[in-house]
């Protein structure tokens, strides 16, 4: 099988929540299978079956390093994006952190905990109403004792892409380390860590058609990191635990495919995203596009519908077979306004009225048109409920 076709499994669902997770590409599953059942040895074992697994893990590391333009020993395998973010923040540590108010909670909550429990300090970079941060603001707030600056490459809720290389350059002017959470960016933006000039970068396989429960952290050679998890000394001593060989192979295969098919995929996403944004803004009364109008992820459309509660809209769409989300998936079911939209300056009422639609490899123009029709209908019904 060379293309993604999930229609057999999910006939009724129009899945527009690829920022929450993606299905695993069948080619990735196929690449993983032998490492469950045949080449199941422990990577640390000296015998042949262990060494075959070891070979697969090291080949995967090389594949990833090639795409990131780094060396294999700069890649650490983790259990996913959250762990990579935790390892970056906790591993680098320091007296003072700089981050943004719109990071994923794996960064935000981790820094808050270090502030509460260990007396660390942090400063938040301002964001404008599109979610952009500015290098000049970083220059003004960076301190002599800043240990780490962490700014996400692209936002998971509104899709805004940040000027990472410019921000990293400012951090480096002051000899401060720079981390980026590239979990949403992977597969849609270049991941060349030399061009981005970052010291640490987080990835998660399940956001680009790889398996759940596996990720990586790029750590530039020479960066001093303390281990997040101690034990058997795997992953250069930074992250103990028996290697998840099938998942590691799946991560590398998914990243390889994402960049081998990069141009086609990104063009496909962009066409669908633009169709979606155009039709929603034209057809649905009170629709507002959130995030940056152009510097946004290729797959990502996000809206506010004035006067509608986002959670009711998501439930109504779900009953019509359309899988969408409001804020990020981690906050699903929560009726609190989106903290990202509040940080962008929206009122609590508007920040509760959000809808995020993220397209994927298997999404079709017909699905987009059907989704727009359903949104129009659901928004109409919900606004009548409010008016009544
Ligand atoms: C999904 C996501 C994460 C968490 O990754 P997991 O592998 O699910 O732990 C971190 N950061 C961003 C921006 C994400 O979108």
Structure description:
The structure is a single chain. This protein has 14 helices and twelve strands. The model has no long low-confidence stretch (mean pLDDT 94). With 388 residues, the chain is an alpha/beta fold. It has a seven-stranded mixed sheet with strand order 2-8-7-6-5-3-4, sandwiched between helices. Bound molecules: pyridoxal-5'-phosphate. Residues 80-82, 85, 104, 106, 152, 156, 181, 183-184, 204, 206-207, 215 line the site of pyridoxal-5'-phosphate (PLP).
Radius of gyration: 21 Å
Task: Identify the strand order in the major beta sheet.
Answer: 2-8-7-6-5-3-4
Distance between the termini: 52 Å
Give the averaged pLDDT, no decimals: 94
Q: What best-fitting shape do the alpha-carbon axes yield?
A: globular
**Low-pLDDT residue intervals, each spanning 5 or more residues:** none
What would you call the structural class? alpha/beta
Q: How is the main sheet built?
A: 7 strands, mixed
Bound molecules: pyridoxal-5'-phosphate
By DSSP, the count of extended strands is: 12
Strand content: 5-15%
Which range best describes the helical content: under 10%, 10-25%, 25-40%, 40-55%, 55-70% or over 70%? 40-55%
In quaternary terms, these chains amount to single chain
* Helical segment count: 14
State the order of secondary-structure elements, H for helix, E for strand. Answer: EHHHEHEHEHEHEHEEHHEEHEHHEH
């Amino acid at each position: 099988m060379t293309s993604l076709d999930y229609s057999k499994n999910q006939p009724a669902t129009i899945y527009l929540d690829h920022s929450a997770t993606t299905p695993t590409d069948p080619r990735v599953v196929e690449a993983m299978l032998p490492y469950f059942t045949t080449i199941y040895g422990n990577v640390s074992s000296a015998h042949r079956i262990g060494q075959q697994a070891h070979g697969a893990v090291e080949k995967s590391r090389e594949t990833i390093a090639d795409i990131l333009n780094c060396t294999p020993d700069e890649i650490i395998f983790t259990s996913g994006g959250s762990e990579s973010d935790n390892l970056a923040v906790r591993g680098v540590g320091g007296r003072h952190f700089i981050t943004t108010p719109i990071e994923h909670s794996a960064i935000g909550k981790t820094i808050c905990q270090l502030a509460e429990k260990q007396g660390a300090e942090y400063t938040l970079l301002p964001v404008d109403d599109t979610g952009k941060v500015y290098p000049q603001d970083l220059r003004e707030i960076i301190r002599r004792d800043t240990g780490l600056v962490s700014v996400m490459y692209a936002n998971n809720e509104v899709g805004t892409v940040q000027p990472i290389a410019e921000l990293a350059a400012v951090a480096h002017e002051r000899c401060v380390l720079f981390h980026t959470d590239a979990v949403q960016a992977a597969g849609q933006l270049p991941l060349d860590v030399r061009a981005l000039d970052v010291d640490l970068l987080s990835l998660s396989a399940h956001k680009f058609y790889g398996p759940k429960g596996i990720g990586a952290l790029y750590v530039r050679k020479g960066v001093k990191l303390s281990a997040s998890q101690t034990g058997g000394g795997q992953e250069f001593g930074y992250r103990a635990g028996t290697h998840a060989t099938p998942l590691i192979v799946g991560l590398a295969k998914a990243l390889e495919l994402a960049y081998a098919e990069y141009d086609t995929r990104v063009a496909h996403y962009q066409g669908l995203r633009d169709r979606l944004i155009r039709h929603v803004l034209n057809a649905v009364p009170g629709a507002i596009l959130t995030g940056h109008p152009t510097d946004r992820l290729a797959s990502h459309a996000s809206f506010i519908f004035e006067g509608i509660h986002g959670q009711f809209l998501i439930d109504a769409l779900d009953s019509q077979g359309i899988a969408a989300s409001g804020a990020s998936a981690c906050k699903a079911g929560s009726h609190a306004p989106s903290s990202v939209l509040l940080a962008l300056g929206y009122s609590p009422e508007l920040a509760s009225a959000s809808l995020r639609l993220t397209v994927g490899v298997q999404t079709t123009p017909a699905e987009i048109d059907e989704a727009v029709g359903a949104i129009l209908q659901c928004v109409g019904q919900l606004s009548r409920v409010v008016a009544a």
